[in-house]
Amino acid sequence: MDRFSTAQLPVGWKTVFEEFFENAQGKALLQFLSERVAAGAVVYPPDPYRAFRLIEPSDVRVVILGQDPYHGPGQAMGLAFSVPRELKKLPPSLKNIFKEIALEFNAPVQTEGDLSVWARQGVLLINSSLTVEQGKPLAHAGLGWEELTDRLMLRVLEEKNPTVFMLWGAWAQKKACLIKEHKASEVLILQANHPSPLSARRPPVPFIGCGHFKKANDWLEKHGEKPVSWSQRPVQPQLF
After folding, report:
1. Which H or E element spans position 124?
2. Under 8 Å CB-to-CB from 238, ≥6 apart: which residues?
3. Mean pLDDT in residue range 156-165
4. Of the listed 68, 114, 150, 218, which one is catalytic?
5. pLDDT, tens digit, for every residue of 21-37?
6. Residue 238, by phi and psi: left (phi above 0), alpha (psi -120 to 50) or beta?
7. Is residue 195 classed exposed, middle or buried when 0-12, 13-18 and 19+ CB atoms within 10 A define those classes?
8. Over 60: is that where the pLDDT of 235 sits?
């Protein structure tokens, strides 16, 4: 199957994708991608729409925003920050995400990087750009993906469900105004530095210690929603 085909997308997302790819910007993006692949460029991930295949707009309870996919071999899998289970060396940002979760929930630091389990609980893991080229971070930024992913975020806001938005880093935090202007229901916007080692422990709001995952769960429960099981291996109570 053509990796850029919208044929197997859930109906809730499909219209947004199709409307975008029918306009001039969307057509130009698809043409660019086709030409890059034909020229031999290695484009990641193999399934750019995976995040949208795992969850319907009506089921989204948390949105985590990334900038663009991992650009190393065997890493990007179509979910922001996530890597395939078989990948043993986790990217530094994902390691810090797992460290923060371990701190918040008194849990072991996770070692498996596939975040599909989050997606199946209503967490939309979305990058601003849905593709990248091997060894070239941000290679496909500014070519139209950002317009599409903004539209997809607006589609989430249309559902009128209580939704948490985790905005990590300056780029993601630019989306706060879009969220506030178009929200149709209650939203919680959580902001902190990016989990990258370059910024995770620095001011103004260090990622390590931000408490976002517990804050999200507390807020969801307050609004009648189930909490997300962020830690895949909770600590067992000690017996004395």
Report:
1. strand 123-127
2. none
3. 95
4. 68
5. 999 999 999 999 999 99
6. beta
7. buried
8. no
| Orientation of helix 11-22 relative to helix 24-38, angle to 10° | 90
- CB within 8 A of 184, min separation 6: which ones? 157, 158, 159, 160
Please state, in angstroms and rounded to a whole number, the distance separating the CA atoms of residues 29 and 219: 38
Q: What is the pLDDT of residues 76-86, one digit of tens each?
A: 999 999 999 99
Which structure tokens are listed for 99? 């460290």
pTM score, whole prediction: 0.93
**218 vs 191, 223, 225, 228, CA distance in Å?**
16, 9, 9, 10
Closest CA to 213 of 223, 202, 200, 228: 228
Q: Which residues, 6 or more positions from 72, have their beta carbon under 8 angstroms from its beta carbon?
A: 91, 134, 135
* In the predicted structure, residue 104 carries a pLDDT above the cut 50: yes
In whole angstroms, how far apart are CA 197 and each of 13, 71, 97? 34, 17, 11
Tokens of 191: 């902001």
**201 close to 179: Cβ distance less than 8 angstroms:** no
> Is 150 labeled as catalytic in the residue annotation?
no
